[in-house]
Amino acid sequence: MAAENLKWWQKTIVYQIYPKSFADTTGSGTGDLNGITKHLDYLKNLGVGAIWLTPIYPSPMVDNGYDISDYMGIDPSYGTMADFEKLIAESDKRNIKIVMDLVYNHSSDKNSWFLESKSSKNNPKADWYIWRDGKPDGSAPTNWRSIFGGSAWTYCEERKQFYLHTFAPAQPDLNWENPEVRQALFDAANFWLDKGVGGFRIDAITYIKKPSEFKDGKPDGKDGMSGIHNLTANTAGILDFLHEFKQKVFIGHDIFTVGEANGVAPEDLNKWVGKDGVFDMVFEFSHMNLPLKNGEIWCRPTEWKLSELKKVLSDSQAATKNNGWCPVFFENHDQPRSVNHFFDKNADKIKAAKAMATILLTLRGTPFIYEGQELGCTNVAWNSIEQYNDISSHGQYDFAIKEGFTKEQAMEFVHFFSRDNARTPMQWNDSKNAGFSTGTPWLFVNENYKTVNAENEEKNPDSVLSWYKKLSKFRSENLELTAGDYKLLLPDDEKIFAFSRSLEKNSLITVVNFSTEPAELPKEFSNKKILIDSESQPEKNLLKPLEARILRN
Ligand code: GLC
Question: 276 an active-site residue?
Fold first, then answer.
């Protein structure tokens, strides 16, 4: 792609903030908007040009904001609309855009829309959600299992009917077939555009279109239910809704959109992104789901090979090669920390974090850094399920027990895949509560904060944070890394991840040893100039465990 045609969001780095866990300025134990404003210079120094905020709207917080009760407000625990406007103004001064999260598959069950909808079968919003009668025996309309576990249907006494929820019962699915619903959602997005936001991340969007007929699925667990994802994700007709969304909201604004598109295969990506697509980018999850048994969303770990990871990442790179663009990401608020997710459990976490960063910042696409990833934050492992806040960890635990696993095994799955791994408070320094809050944090702080923290790492030139800054600067100075073509090298090697990024006659090569053993470097790499290396004394023909290197071809 010609470098001069790149848009601002293709040349920048996006940083994802989980506001509840980022920085608390009031002592409430919960992060807030002023906490984000306070740390804008930290993000600027990292080379960040946009911040994706997970939902900050009023919410009962059953799913920490992904259950919205008012689409045009700010939750009081995060501050006020004036605080938000200040955040936008201060970000603007630093040339950083604020990107909002649109949760449009479902609302909260406390949203006034739902309260009205459930009040009777003939109120003006009766059809704003998905209501069905039960089966003749009174059981749920279908055997669909929600993504968080348990039936995807909840009975409502007032209407004597069931409503559908792809996620928790507190997150009823909106009925996108109803044009009034779509208009209300588009109005809310336009409201935020008027406030000056720089883009949207669109949540769980592959679930908005439901099948024309609601039928039982083949049971895939001992509970007799069938996971809703395989039955409703990416249903034909969904793109019509999204084209309308694009026309009525996105078009004509200098913003970017990124859809959460679990269920869209790489071969379908060109209908979703690019010239005739609906979004600028979509999060495609093949690489994140690789370490999970059967590709189930919240499930137990399984064996995987580096060659498979390289293949799925290369497939999505290939799918957007000539049309479209992709985000590059290895962490978010729903995923384990990448040093635990993708590396041997005995791997040195600092080296692993640098290895991951090198892939993240040199692949083609817009890199998304999730808060704390730049510090090399790791998973936690609390003793009992009661210590976990994440609603899906509870569902996953109960599901594992029902499937016949022991409590210890169920906890192992939770340790591996709990979303709380990524939601522990940001580690700013080695003072009380990692400098996150003077009150009692809403979630336990990771106990490694005494060493893994921003203040410490800022002072240390060999830290993970310093490595991120170095690569971020290198990326901004080498056009090959933004505009260059991607080519996978050594596809079958099970230790080394290597690829080139070429623009006209210039080419850079990334080589990363993903294993905890040394890896011999094939001859064709050993005569190239080393530009950057994570080891202080690199050997030409050998990579030390987890060593990351960038070469000039
Ligand atoms: C998305 C969000 C996740 C949330 C779910 C329901 O997957 O990333 O955090 O729980 O949607 O809104």
Answer: no
Pick from 233, 128, 108: which is nearest to 174 by CA?
128
Q: What is the pLDDT of residue 296?
A: 52
Q: Which atom of ligand 1 is nearest to the CA of 391?
A: 10
Rounded Cα distance between 327 and 324, Å, is: 10
pLDDT value of position 262: 87
C-alpha dihedral sign at 403, 408, 409, 411: positive
pLDDT on residue 270 = 86
Give the pLDDT score at 294.
55
How far is Cα 176 from Cα 164, in angstroms, rounded to an integer?
A: 13
Q: What angle do CA 492, 498, 501 make, to 5 degrees?
A: 130
Cα distance between residue 236 and residue 268, in whole Å = 12
Predicted local distance difference test score (pLDDT) of residue 297: 47
Q: Is 127 in the active site? A: no
Calpha distance 53→50 (Å, rounded): 10
Please indicate, yes or no, whether the overall pTM of this predicted structure exceeds 0.85.
yes
Which residue's CA lies nearest to atom 3 of ligand 1? 334
Pairing, β 48-53 against β 13-17: parallel
Class of domain 483-552 (CATH, top level): mainly beta
Position 299 scores a pLDDT of 62
Q: Whose CA is nearest to atom 9 of ligand 1?
A: 334
3-state secondary structure of 201: strand
- Ordered by start, the domain boundaries in the chain are 8-107+179-203+255-274+281-472, 483-552
3-state SS assignment for residue 26: coil
Task: Give me ligand 1 centre to Cα 282, in Å.
Answer: 15
Q: Using CA positions, which residue lies closest to atom 7 of ligand 1?
A: 204
Can you tell me the distance from the alpha carbon of 357 to that of 471, in angstroms, rounded to the nearest whole number?
8
**Nearest in space to 130 (alpha carbons), one of 168, 185, 176, 180:** 176
Angle at the Cα of 515 from the Cα atoms of 512 and 518, rounded to 5 degrees:
85
Ligand 1: residue of 61, 63, 297 to mutate (most ligand atoms within 8 A of CB) is 63
**pLDDT one-digit tens code per residue, 490-518:** 999 999 999 999 999 999 999 999 999 99
Query: Which CATH homologous superfamily contains domain 8-107+179-203+255-274+281-472?
Result: Glycosidases (3.20.20.80)
Q: Point out the residues of the chain with pLDDT beneath 70.
A: 293-299
* CA of residue 262 to ligand 1 center, whole Å: 11
Q: Which residues line ligand 1 (CB under 6 A)?
A: 63, 66, 103, 167, 203-204, 260, 333-334
pLDDT score, position 95? 98
Choosing from 83, 260, 284, 374, which is the catalytic residue?
260
Give the torsion sign (CA, 464, 470, 473, 479): negative
Write the secondary structure of 380-448 as one string of H (helix), E (strand) and C (coil): CCCCCHHHCCCHHHHHHHHHHHHCCCCHHHHHHHHHHHCHHHHCCCCCCCCCHHHHCCCCCCCCCCCHH
**Cα 27 from Cα 45, distance rounded (Å):** 26
Spatial separation of the C-alpha atoms in residues 253 and 39, rounded to whole Å: 27
